[in-house]
Amino acid sequence: MNAVSPRAVRHFEPPTTLSGWLVARRFQLARRITQAGVLLLFAGTAAWGWKLAGAPLLAGNLSAATLAGSVPLVDPFAVLQMLAAGRVPESTALGGALLVLAAYLVAGGRAFCAWACPMNLVTDAAHAMRQRVGGRDLVHLSPSMRYWALGLALVLSALTGLAAFEWVSPIAMLHRELLFGAGLGLTAAAAIFLLDAFVAKRAWCGHLCPLGAFWSVAGRAGLTKVAFSDAACTRCGDCVRACPEPRVLDFKNCAARGFVAAGECTNCGECIAVCPEKALRFDLLARAPRPDPFRRKEKPHETHPARSSSPRSPRSPSRRSPRRFPTRSSA
């Protein structure tokens, strides 16, 4: 049997043309357009009176809004804090929260963080600065801290009777200041920029944000996933270096399940953009490839020594000296 020739490990090559740059940055550009579009819809309604069918197009903010004067859109985490505070939201608020939750479950759960949250522009800019200056972590933060922050927000809501995180959320502050020019949003954004750039890598989004923790829990049930082809992957590691949540790219788990299963994945698409083997792509969970657990398929990048047709070589003699038995003396 002939040996399987190994596949060369290729790495992502930075584009040298405008078209190549656009392809490599396609998901980042799409996210920026989406984030700017959401802000523009809110700003156009608040400042210029944009309407749809005679009703305000998108009135409110990221915590609670109304689309076309009749469709409620409410942050599910805000409603969860209200419930923890012992306050029963109105049926329209509950319906709006379920509608937003359903939409983001289809989009992949934590897609809010990469595609709608305005703070994502700040943290991405801080990461770019950190790469330029070669920043190092001054403190070590555990990724599980965000879940403690989530629990703390609910406990404080129960103790105070208020939606605790909504009062101090830098995301809400930034959104309000961008729309209405009031508040401490830019100050909060500057603090997070400095934290991410010079104190700890991806400190806010990857370690501290309770809203991101909420969407991480919801993201485990998301329908849109990053599908993974184990046969095409050569383990070059470019996707891990590009990912803002590199812990989600566990190759062993991805190979076993056929997709990135971790809820912390933001579906930002950066791993897909840099993969030279096209081993990653967006797909619906129901269509993601499921490997057969009872059959181990040979991977193209694995090598197997060819079996030799020559007869087996005899065993090498033992290093121990042979045992000597006494001989009888002749009669």
Description:
The chain is mainly α and 331 residues long. It has 15 helices and seven strands. It has two domains: 28-218, no CATH class; 223-287, Alpha-Beta Plaits (2-Layer Sandwich). The chain has a three-stranded antiparallel beta sheet with strand order 3-4-5. A two-stranded antiparallel sheet has the order 1-2. It has a two-stranded antiparallel ribbon with strand order 6-7. The radius of gyration is 28 Å and the shape is globular. The chain starts with 17 loop residues before the first helix and ends in a 47-residue tail after the last strand.
Give a brief description.
The chain is mainly alpha-helical and 331 residues long.
Can you lay out the helices and strands and say which pair or pack?
Layout (H helix, E strand, L loop, with lengths): L17 H7 L1 H23 L2 E2 L2 E2 L1 E3 L3 E4 L3 E4 L1 H9 L6 H17 L3 H5 L3 H15 L11 H16 L3 H5 L1 H11 L4 H15 L3 H6 L1 H10 L4 E5 L9 H5 L8 H7 L12 H5 L5 E5 L47
Antiparallel strand pairs: 1-2, 3-4, 4-5, 6-7
Helix pairs in contact: 2-9, 3-7, 6-10, 7-12, 9-10
